[in-house]
Amino acid sequence: MGEIMTKPHILQVGPYPAWDQEPLDAAFHMHRLFEAADRDAYLAEVGPKVRGIATRGELGANAAMIAACPNLEIISVYGVGYDAVDLAAAKARGIRVTNTPDVLTNDVADLGVAMMLVQSRGMIGAETWVRDGSWAAKGLYPLQRRVWGKRAGVLGLGRIGYEVAKRLAGFDLEIAYSDVGPKDYAKDWEFIADPVALAERSDFLFVTLAASAATRHIVGAKVIEALGPNGMLINISRASNIDEAALLDALETGRLGSAALDVFEGEPALNPRFLSLPNVLLQPHHASGTFETRQAMGKLVRDNLGAHFAGQPLLTPVL
Ligand code: 8YV
């Protein structure tokens, strides 16, 4: 060996924890787009050197970013969702794309189920009731809604949807799911092809679909109203799967009972109408946000980049 390797130049779209940043800085020339005052000027300057993009699920890599990097070979996504990557642009140029599946599945499922429990039992309000002295001053906290034994619908029975359903089975929920077709690994659960029919028979509807142009607003006014005034919508996928305007209208008018949401259109800014609703539980896109999972995600991002530049097979390729 003994040859001096030139470190590949990587465009970094968003921040990573120090435990990822340090090894990335050691192995590659990292160019931090998110720190640039003028992103277009920065892209024009570093783009020609860039052979890899390291991004986050929600940030992706758009056509302009890909076009600004004429020598781009690989896009490594920190996240299972790659809907924010312009796959057509990548494919047209033979650019490889990787994501971080599997390592986050259980945490995302945990958070979805936790949101259902917290919201159904009114735990955020109950905590405030204790902290602000209402318990002593006003007495008993209002009664809440039971979870166990109810009917849950899982929209999208992929890796995350499957883990959600498995957990719900532990709460003796009656489970049904929608997907492109029945799954052989879901024999105990009812398959209902039509999302409106799924929502109609469900008390809790979990949205666990990989987002794409085909699933955009798949949860529209009809699904939301079928879920109804006693129903709860839980979204741990992407905001684009839900017609957010229809959701806000239904929550404001009581045509939908409640929602527990980890993702929002235009996040981290969100529609201020959400903030004045008493019947929503809001989370900051944090379903994969544990030390353990984020460490595994960061390692996969690095290992995919490392494998690519070493001429080895990618660990978790999308393209
Ligand atoms: C991450 C995600 O929060 O996996 C995904 O697709 O959206 C989340 O796990 C995100 O990608 C981290 O930036």
TrEMBL record:
GO molecular function: glyoxylate reductase (NADPH) activity; hydroxypyruvate reductase [NAD(P)H] activity; NAD binding
Keyword Membrane set for record: no
All copies of domain D-isomer specific 2-hydroxyacid dehydrogenase catalytic, residue ranges: 32-318
Family: Belongs to the D-isomer specific 2-hydroxyacid dehydrogenase family.
Signal peptide residues on this chain, from the entry's feature table: none
Protein name: D-2-hydroxyacid dehydrogenase
Alphabetized InterPro entries for the sequence: D-isomer_2-hydroxyacid_DH (IPR050223), D-isomer_2_OHA_DH_cat_dom (IPR006139), D-isomer_DH_NAD-bd (IPR006140), NAD(P)-bd_dom_sf (IPR036291)
Keyword annotations: NAD, NADP, Oxidoreductase
Domain called D-isomer specific 2-hydroxyacid dehydrogenase NAD-binding: residue spans: 113-287
Organism ancestry: Bacteria, Pseudomonadati, Pseudomonadota, Alphaproteobacteria, Rhodobacterales
Source species: Gemmobacter aquaticus
